[in-house]
Each structure stands twice: as structure tokens, then as C-alpha cells.
Design goal:
Belongs to the LysR transcriptional regulatory family. The protein is α/β, with parallel strands linked by helices. About 45% of the residues lie in helices and about 20% in strands.
């Protein structure tokens, strides 16, 4: 004998519960015709008529009523077990929202170590600069650039940033006056993260002269432009660390400013972190805090 049509049984239970194909269809997000078709499949499989179909209503037959009384608790149990297993899976899943540049330049290289240490935790990463995604996208944790701790959330400082000028070694060789802070004839690269050239120029009384400007909207593109020799960019002590350590970028002249925004780890105050999310938080603090 063939297996019972489980989808048809689910549709039957919904229709029997509501005594309406339309209401069953609304709950299942299908059409009333689809519900009717599934019930016909089940009736054919059982060899029984389950509903009396009237002009504007339906009613269970005696066989349909008996079948529903036996199937309803089984279907409830099936749904309950499935939902509980879904919850178990969610306890192992951690949703983390973070800025795109930080995701690619800092988190990405560290991920293999995390996965080796915690193979039972499933990370779901969302590259987004918006703090509200903690609520709207149901993220457990978010890494954000903020001027100060946001009191709406549980926030922990990950890194207090310092802004500094950066360029490729080749660009510095082509513009040796940069070593003295003279910007005449160079291209200043501006990005949305550290919009601080005006502060740096004013603080250190830098000689601008005739300068060109390149504007980009992503910190990653800023670093790529600087490494490609397109000009002088403003980076920070966290995102730029790897490029400086490996010599892809250099600091052409000594000028530093406290960043206007620093890196924070945030999560909701309204619900406790799951054990897995707590593990991810501790790992992020151990890996990036400082």
C-alpha cells in the first residue's frame, strides 16, 4: 500500500477545524481550490467521503468526523515536535550583523579559528551598517561604529579607534613632500567612515596647496584605492592594521586623531542571549577587544 498523503491530511485537518475550505486556505496560504483538491486526494486514498459539500458550507461526514478525532491530536503532536526541534536548531544558530568592511577585512580572516573551536555553532552573518537591524532582522548580535555606547542596547566597546593617513609605498616615493605633511599635488581619498580630512588639516596645520579628491562610500574601497596608489586615505588602527603590518600601506607623515566613531558590540537588553550567542560574544571580545 502506498504511503498516506501527508500534505492532504494537513489540509483536511485545517478544513475540519474551521469547517471551511476558505479559512483553511487562508491559514495554509494557498487557494480554496488547492485545499479542495488535496481533500479529494485524501478521500480517494482512503476510499471514504470525508465532507458533505453543500452550496455555501461543508460538514464532516460520520467517517470524516471519526477520522478527524483520531488525526487532530497526531497532527498537533507533529507540529509541536517540529517546532521544538526548530527551536533547538535556533539555539545553535547565531545571527550577527556587522559593517561590510569589518566583515571582509577583520572577521573573515578570523573565522576559520572560530569554526575550529566551535563546530556546533552555526553563524549567519549579515553585512549591514544599520543598528536597527538588531530588531528588524532578528539579529542576536551586531557590531557597529558608534560615537558612544547606545543606551537602547547592551553595548560593549570593542575597539577605540585612531584615525591616521595612509598611502602605498610607491605613492609616497612619487610624492616625497608627503613626509613633511605637504599635500600639494596629491589626491585625498575620502570615505563615509572617517570623514576627517578637514579636522586633520586644521589640527596639524597641513599645507594643502592644489589637491585632488576621490570620494568613495565604503572603507574597503578606500583601502583598495590607497593600496593601488590612487592617493592618500584616512584609515584607522583596526581596519588598516594588516595592510600596515604587511607593508601594503605606510603612514606618510605623523598625524593622528581620535576617531569620531568607535567599534561597539551590541545586543538587545530585552531578551537574554542564547548560550551560543554568549559564546560568540565572548569570542568576539577576546579576538577584537583592545
Amino acid at each position: 500500500m502506498s504511503q498516506p498523503p501527508l500534505k492532504a491530511i494537513q489540509c483536511f485537518c485545517l478544513a475540519a477545524q474551521h469547517l471551511s475550505f476558505k479559512k483553511a486556505a487562508d491559514e495554509a496560504s494557498v487557494t480554496a481550490g488547492a485545499i479542495s483538491q488535496q481533500i479529494k486526494i485524501l478521500e480517494n486514498w482512503l476510499g471514504l467521503t470525508l465532507f458533505e459539500r453543500r452550496a455555501r458550507s461543508i460538514a464532516l461526514t460520520e467517517a470524516g468526523n471519526a477520522y478527524y478525532r483520531r488525526m487532530a491530536p497526531l497532527m498537533d503532536e507533529l507540529v509541536g515536535v517540529s517546532q521544538s526541534m526548530q527551536q533547538v536548531d535556533r539555539l545553535r544558530t547565531v545571527r550577527l550583523a556587522l559593517p561590510p568592511a569589518f566583515a571582509l577585512m577583520r572577521l573573515g580572516p578570523a573565522l576559520p579559528g572560530f569554526c575550529t573551536q566551535h563546530p556546533d555553532i552555526e553563524l549567519r552573518l549579515s553585512a549591514s551598517p544599520l543598528l536597527y537591524s538588531l530588531q528588524e532582522a532578528a539579529n542576536d548580535l551586531a557590531i557597529r561604529y558608534l560615537p558612544q555606547a547606545d543606551e537602547r542596547y547592551d553595548t560593549t566597546l570593542l575597539s577605540r579607534l585612531t584615525v591616521l593617513p595612509l598611502c602605498s609605498p610607491a605613492y609616497l616615493a612619487e610624492h616625497p613632500a608627503l613626509a613633511e605633511g605637504k599635500l600639494h599635488g596629491v589626491t585625498l581619498i575620502h570615505d563615509i567612515l572617517h570623514q576627517d580630512w578637514h579636522r586633520l588639516v586644521r589640527r596639524y596645520d597641513l599645507a594643502l596647496g592644489v589637491t585632488r579628491h576621490l570620494h568613495v562610500d565604503q572603507a574597503l574601497l578606500t583601502h583598495q584605492a590607497a593600496e593601488s596608489g590612487l592617493g592618500v586615505a584616512l584609515g584607522d588602527t583596526l581596519l588598516s592594521r594588516d595592510a600596515l603590518e604587511h607593508g601594503r600601506l605606510v603612514i606618510p607623515f605623523e598625524a593622528r586623531l581620535p576617531a569620531r566613531r568607535h567599534l561597539f558590540l551590541a545586543h538587545s537588553r530585552k531578551r537574554p542571549l542564547s548560550p551560543a550567542a554568549g559564546t560568540v560574544k565572548r569570542w568576539l571580545l577576546a579576538t577584537f577587544q583592545g
